[in-house]
């Protein structure tokens, strides 16, 4: 305890390593961490406060909005609104981006977030989380536009998430590795608990919603069968583990090794997960931990969304398995193209 490494202390120490650092990024990141502490408190008290259940409204995705969705979204917007370094905010829960009060002209940073991932699990007390992404715009002095957000994921300067479970963890990367911090409720601080996180080179978990199999394309069926039913000794100890909270599934696989798969299928031809709020930030984290992320055809961080709420298939985790999925996807589509040519 004499040398406790808190998140704020850790960020300040790393700031000294960068020439020309202004401290703006440090303030932004510590405010995001503060927001997640408050959300964690609300989640922990959800059964005591009147914050369980649905509001009766639907978000831009057509999904029912929960009371905690609204609380988390409003909290994040409120805390970011008065930061002069933030010019605009985009949230999964709002139709349009929001210009901030303090930094709409001079702020350099753009912030995207999914305020409460796994909302459908709230009422049954299953792990949920918050996902965030920070980008830097090319020019200041004018108001940001939606096009400032519509860039490849490789342009993120920071991404991370919090998971609210048996403990609350804050995990983030700035492009030079991944570090995890656990909230110590006794001191009210995130404390470094998982330095330099690396995804183990083993597939402990296969995270996929197998009830969607009836809608899968053949390459997805082949991939899942290869891992769950094949003879490859690499998968001898692999178990099926699917929480239904994206960030919880990804976090577990990051710690123990595994692959998360939410592919395109006959029902969701463009995929289901949001590029800006889910796929880009989690792909950045996983890549920095030694893993990979693809939609089958493209590296997730190379994808440029065409809309603030664009969706994408997402396969991420151990590099070997992500590359295998890509190979199966490519073979299937080459064969499909050849059959189409033959029929023509």
Q: Brief description of this entry?
A:
With 344 residues, the protein is α+β, with helices and mostly antiparallel strands. Helix content is 32%, strand content 24%.
How would you explain this protein's 3D organization?
- The chain is 32% helix and 24% strand.
- The protein is an alpha+beta fold.
- The protein folds into 2 domains: 7-194, Fructose-1,6-Bisphosphatase, Chain A, domain 1 (2-Layer Sandwich), CATH 3.30.540.10; 205-343, D-Maltodextrin-Binding Protein, domain 2, CATH 3.40.190.80.
- It has an 8-stranded mixed beta sheet with strand order 4-3-5-6-7-8-9-10, with helices on both faces.
- Strand 1 (54-58) and strand 2 form a beta hairpin.
- Helix 1 runs antiparallel to helix 2 (24-44) and helix 5 runs antiparallel to helix 8.
- The relative contact order is 0.12.
How would you summarize the topology of this molecule?
Elements: H1 7-15, H2 24-44, E1 54-58, E2 64-66, H3 67-81, E3 86-91, E4 98-99, E5 109-117, E6 128-136, H4 146-149, E7 156-164, E8 168-173, E9 178-184, E10 189-194, E11 205-208, H5 218-228, E12 239-240, H6 246-256, E13 258-262, E14 273-274, H7 275-288, E15 292-294, E16 311-312, E17 314-317, H8 319-343
Helix pairs in contact: 1-2, 2-3, 5-8
Q: Which short descriptors sum up this protein?
A:
Fructose-1,6-Bisphosphatase, Chain A, domain 1; 344 residues; alpha+beta; 17 strands
